[in-house]
Amino acid sequence: MSNTFLTEIEPNLGFVRDLLEGGAASLESCYQCATCSTVCPLSSDGNPFPRKEMIWAQWGQMDKLINNPDVWLCHQCNDCVTYCPRDAKPGDLMAAVRKFSFGHFATPGFMGKIFQKAITQLYLLAVPVIILFLALIFNNSLTNVPRGVNGEIVFDFFIPTITIDLIFIPFALFAVFAIVLSLRRFWGGLKEHAPPAKDSKKSIVSSIIKTVMDIAFHTRFKKCGTNKDRSIAHAMVLWGFVGLFITTNIGFVYIYGYLVGILDQPYAPPSTLLDTLSFSVADANNAMGGLASHHPQLHYTAPYAKLFGYFSAFLFIVGGINLMINRMKTKLKTTNTTYDWVFMMMLLLTGLTGAISPWLRGHQWAALAYPNYFIHLVFVFYIIAYLPYSKLAHMAYRFTAMVYSTYTGRDAEIILSEEASNKAA
Amino acid sequence: MEKKQGVYICSGCGIGDSLDTEKMVNLAKEEFKVPVCKSHSFLCGEEGVKLIKDDMSSEGINTITIAACSPRVNTEIFNFASSDVILERANIREHVTWVQPPKDENTQMLGEDYLRMGIIRASKSDYPDLETTTENKSLMVVGGGITGLTSAFEAAETGYKVTLIEKGDQLGGFAKKLYKQLPMAYPYNKLEQPDIQDKVKQVESHSNIKVLLNAEIEKVSGMPGEFDVKVKANGSSEDMKVGAFVVATGWKPYDANKLDHLGYGKYSNVITNVQLEEMASKSNGKITRPSDGKEVKSVAFIQCAGSRDENHLPYCSSVCCMTSLKHASYVREMDSDAKAYIIYQDMITPAQHENLYKEVQKDEGIFLTKGDPGAITENSDKSITLEVKDSLLGGDIKLKVDLLVLATGMVPNSPDALKLDYRQGDELPTLNWGFTDSHYICFPYETQRTGIYTAGVTRQPMTMGQSAQDATGAALKAIQTLEMKGRGETVHPRSGDSSLPIINYNICTSCKRCTEECPFSALEENEQGGPIANPNRCRSCGICFGACPVRAINFKNYSMDMIASMIKGIEVPDEEEEKPRIVALFCENDAYPALDIAGINRLKINPYVRVIPVRCLGSVNVSWINDALNSGIDGILLGGCRYGEDYQCHFITGSELASKRMVNVKETLKSMMLEEERVQQVEVTLNDYDKIPQIINDFAETVTALEPNPFKGF
Tell me, what's the ipTM? Predict the structure, then answer.
């Protein structure tokens, strides 16, 4: 239907080249047969994808692509890549557009540019390294770190928790500020280039709730045929991540709650289960960064919180490893760029360093424990401070696009491509 | 030659289980008094063949009827026919045994009728005299482009003398204008340097080829092997004798002045694909705007400009899409930031040219979309704004470009290059849009004039690679004609046949039907208007024979008397027996083979139908229908190839003529007080074999429903 009269088209050749280098090397092979849109289980009748994205990409239509919610409705199941008769890999094009979007909407812009390339991203790890190094110097713990009352390793004496919080919290707040600015521009772009077709506006609140539920249960993701394993692995990573976030916040409450005097509960003796996990009073105290010196007793929920933390870490790491293995399955024909690997390694290393930290500390292998803790903090910084610019930003953009999509009734029905799912499985 | 008949009945392939062959042997001996009649269980085996050969040498058998399998099979085994021996085949396998219930009364009657007809056919046949003509075995190739050059070269390499005629002052044709050419070698994805000059050098230096430049043909008369050609070269006329022709006169571009709705002629920066090629060739790849001579930064190509369009050229010229891909590559080669847009209806890059498309597609500066060109306007800086409706980008779009290129199509040069001094006109017959008509699926370079072949774009739009192949094929066929006609044999489709029409001038009334209806213009006219045969033009189809109202034309082995006698030889039971009789005249080209295939598939057919193979439905003389009706035959079914716009008749017009003559037949039937439905013509193609039983049975039902022919028993 030719109902939209577009203004003069001027292909952005630089943009096309960016996409070609950004992981969509085969995009020129597309000849618009629309097999991809037909096969995609997440593509709706009203606004099918990714065929149109392929021709927009070939014609360098940057504005249409980055202000397009469909790019984010795609969950990289790769059914399209599997079935494309030209091996044009539409799935990779969608990924390349998303990558470009991180750069385009980034606030400030130069950060977005740095994060478009794997190498330049890694250079930015220098920032947390230097800051934490300075913290060590300031704390006089560069060469000699005092031990706890029983000779145990206390990380709080290495880098005080409060120092960490004083560094990380401002960066986190700035990150939130930056991502909100980006999302505002993104939302504005969506409204301009992908306006709702009719007045099918649901309420914004219900759209948000629906999206949250979708993400929680991976309703959309599960529809992907070719890449079913990925949906499970990703769910684990997501839930693990959320769990770890909660754990951290619980810890925060424990630490500052005691300081402020909010929490002051008697300590329950450890059970045999907890015994086998080597929980001891000393351990428990040390887990709180040595603040046992302020309080002889720990909150009775602390061990459970710790268990929860371990479980989340387990989900996160196992899910992450599975995602990596999944990427390596050549039959899926995904293009894996260095950029993709760097992102995965960052998260995985964060999880691994965090998981082995208590183990190293418990065995009092100082030479390993302290550096490991340092590295862990560097990676955590990457996750928090650079979230608006790295691939982690997909959390924000996809969430926003999905909310927009639901809000404007764009995905009224998603075709449940049973045959596609079954065939690809 | 005194005839001594031998009849051999095979009982193999199930024939013996279905028919009583002994009874048939007796029939041959008693009814026809043939000196020798034998049956054998495996006639095509060593023993069977020896049986026949022994009879030929010891008994002097020289007129053989073999009642066995179809005449289309085992021809190399039953190869006894020669200038001294007549051989006819009666098909009691595919047409009797395999399609009828075994040991049935009707089956036996059917088999016996076929035997009768086979014996009669052999007895009435006469062996044709082989006429070897003084033949000239040189070729003339008309047109010095890639097609003509290739044809001449290939023929010359095979050892034949060739005269190459070129209208212009240089050899090379359109290919001379190329900057680069489409790939002609594996892997077919890189543009090539034009190599036409190599081909020109090859031809100029070949000892078997004589090149005449600035040359045109003034007249051609005669026939294959004996063409008299008058050529005017460089002002002076020359007479030569030529054996066969390859016409490779090529094409010219469609007149773009008719495309003013696309801006041509209105705006300076709208050019055609031909103009772009010429520009690139002269400037070594620089594409500039006509308005100011600056190199272009953006070019749009409109495909199907004046093609696939009822108002201009209704057909696709097959090379314009690939040419635009090539031209887009020129633009990109010149400037890696320039943009080329190709707006197409369909991207037509058939066969191996797909590889070029895939390669060119990879260039990120070439933008392809399907779409319909809308309004085209010129801006103040002389750039062109082009609207494209219904593009793949989702709606209408507007493009602003420095240059607009219209991909126009090809128009074949007029088919009158030979100025044939033929009764039916000086042009080679065309079917659609000026392209010479051949219709022959196997040998598309055939024309309706024997010994004259067309190749290249003059007969169909094609690439240079295809033209070169076409040229080679045409040269081969031209050589074949020379050789075969030199032996007195005709060419496709009755390849090897040496029978020619014999005209009895005593009864000829000069009605001119034969001279007009011959599809190959093989008959000229004498002063009285009677036909003069040109044997080397003839394809022995017999359409003249079918046209003649006074039956003045006959072939030695295919005569009025022969078929009439066969029809009369069918045993027609009295009406009380309630066994109607139907004669099916089926042409040998598609209809008869379709019946054979029905037989191979053991499909069941009505037992009352007797099939007589004819050379073409056009060779069916209406008198046979009278003969049939007078003999008490209840119905006559004519089965032949399809005619009309998408005709399939192997002799071009045969079945169509037959259908026209049916009008007269209907008149005759009325005068005989017989029903119109008794005579019908059906169109049968080879792949209709599964419908044959239905066709025949339906006709049989119609006829059976009528009263039995009152002429029975007369």
Answer: 0.85
